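Lecture 7 notes: from sequence to structure.
We start with the chain below.
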Amino acid sequence: MPCAMISLTASQEVAMPDTRLPDHWLAAPQFDGLSDTAWRIFTHGYMWSNRNLTDGWIPDKSLKHLGTERGSEGLLELEAAGLVEVNEGAIYLDWEFQTPRDTFLKQKEDNRKKAANKRAKDRERLAEIERTPGTTQVTHSIGRTGQEEDEGIRYYPDADNKDF
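Predicted structure tokens for the same chain:
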């Protein structure tokens, strides 16, 4: 069964839902003989639903985003395999092992609060450094060779010094 996770992209620090395709699906009987078209509709359905936070519900009007439409061969194949439930106006994917919308939104809000608290603490530390007499902020630029550079002064660590 699929397992959605919340990932935090390091560069953007944006929470986003992920859809996992477990390796045991490779040998699961309900996937044996599934056409490429049906597999694509199935996996795109999970990704679409995760992205739109619909907990497995995909309205008929959005089936075009999966490259299908109501009554298509691929969709009928998935229904026959028991991988989707087709109701009036929508299809449903099993969402038991995915991250529900409410959980994702709570985690996203928790991450936002955590980041805001960290920024506030960082501002507080910087303000404390600026208020303390005799202290200055120390910054150094590291060159391409990994050696410290500061206002044209080059620092070359002693190769015999065991501290480096």
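Points to note: The longest strand covers residues 5-8. The chain is about 35% helix and 15% strand.
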